[in-house]
């Protein structure tokens, strides 16, 4: 399966390029808005992604910033690509944030999960059990759509060049019985199978490791093929939302946290052996 350009990544790249061109002119966002007769926050909202930029607005900004012909071609193409639909748009009602769009074009994904098996390696039965538990008032149609959306994400690993996936999983995630013992046995077996993929590394953080740097919860670092064009982003999960961090200080903090977790976790070979023992604890 070939990789499809992510409109989420293209929209982010467009915002960054518009900010770069504005900085080149030495103008503040408020000065640009005033000169164009726009509301004073309009330019900032474009640049941080709080408002969708229209084609005519891109043209207006390029004129003001004195963009070269090459820059015009590049940014016009980015705007066109950013308006396309990713596969996840069909699940907009059950995929409320942009994480999947950022994940879709990642070259490397480094993630820590404390309570769940990571989404890209979940079995259908495990997904269904999680959705039912977390959406007690949902009807069957909503449950089915959430399950379908989660499973559709797994196509990422079937790409011609899948992302490098490095996962640290707290022991609690494989010990908690989600969906029953048979579901968990199959889920742990899926993790063992994934360990054989050349693009996947799995490490288990055992209870015996004690306190660690990510006691606050799960997170993911998403790296891209060209870090100058598409810098790393960090996603942090909590009970009600997902928070995106792009500033270098946040990226550095979470990268250090991930390195700390890797150092405290079992190495990949030990983790496979550990998962085998966990699987044996669940009845056939």
Annotation keywords:
284 residues; alpha/beta; Endonuclease, Chain A; six-stranded mixed β-sheet; 49% helix; Lambda_DNA-bd_dom_sf; DNA binding; DUF5753; Cro/C1-type_HTH
Note down, in words, how this protein is organized.
With about 280 residues, the chain is an alpha/beta fold. The protein has two domains: about 5-85, 434 Repressor (Amino-terminal Domain); about 95-280, Endonuclease, Chain A. Helix content is about 50%, strand content about 10%. The protein has twelve helices and six strands. The chain has helices at about 5-25, 30-35, 40-50, 55-65, 70-80, 100-105, 125-135, 140-155, 170-175, 180-195, 250-265, 270-280, and strands at about 110-115, 165-170, 200-205, 220-225, 235, 240-245. Strands 3-2-1-4-5-6 form a six-stranded mixed beta sheet. α1 runs antiparallel to α5, α4 (about 55-65) runs antiparallel to α5 and α7 (about 125-135) packs across α8 (about 140-155). It is elongated. The chain starts with 6 loop residues before the first helix and ends with a helix.
């Amino acid at each position: 399966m070939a990789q499809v350009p992510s409109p989420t990544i293209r929209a982010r790249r467009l915002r960054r390029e518009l900010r770069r061109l504005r900085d080149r002119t030495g103008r503040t966002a408020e000065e640009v808005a005033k000169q164009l007769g726009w509301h004073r926050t309009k330019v900032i909202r474009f640049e941080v992604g709080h408002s969708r930029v229209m084609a005519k607005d891109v043209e207006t900004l390029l004129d003001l910033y004195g963009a070269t012909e090459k820059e015009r071609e590049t940014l016009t193409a980015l705007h066109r690509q950013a308006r396309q639909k990713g596969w996840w748009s069909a699940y907009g009602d059950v995929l409320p944030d942009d994480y999947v769009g950022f994940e879709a074009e990642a070259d490397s994904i480094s993630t820590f999960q404390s309570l769940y098996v990571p989404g890209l390696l979940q079995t259908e039965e495990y997904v269904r059990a999680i959705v039912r538990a977390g959406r007690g008032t949902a009807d069957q149609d909503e449950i089915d759509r959430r399950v379908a959306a989660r499973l559709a994400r797994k196509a990422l690993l079937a790409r011609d060049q899948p992302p490098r996936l490095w996962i640290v999983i707290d022991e609690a995630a494989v010990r908690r019985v989600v969906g029953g013992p048979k579901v968990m046995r199959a889920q742990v077996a899926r993790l063992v199978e994934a360990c054989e993929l050349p693009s996947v590394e799995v490490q288990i953080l055992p209870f015996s490791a004690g306190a660690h740097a990510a006691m606050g919860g799960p997170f993911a670092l998403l790296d891209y093929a060209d870090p100058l064009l598409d810098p790393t982003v960090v996603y942090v999960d909590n009970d009600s939302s997902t928070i995106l961090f792009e500033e270098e200080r946040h990226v550095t903090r979470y990268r250090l946290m991930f390195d700390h977790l890797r150092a405290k976790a079992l190495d990949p070979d030990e983790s496979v052996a550990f998962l085998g023992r966990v699987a044996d604890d669940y009845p056939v």
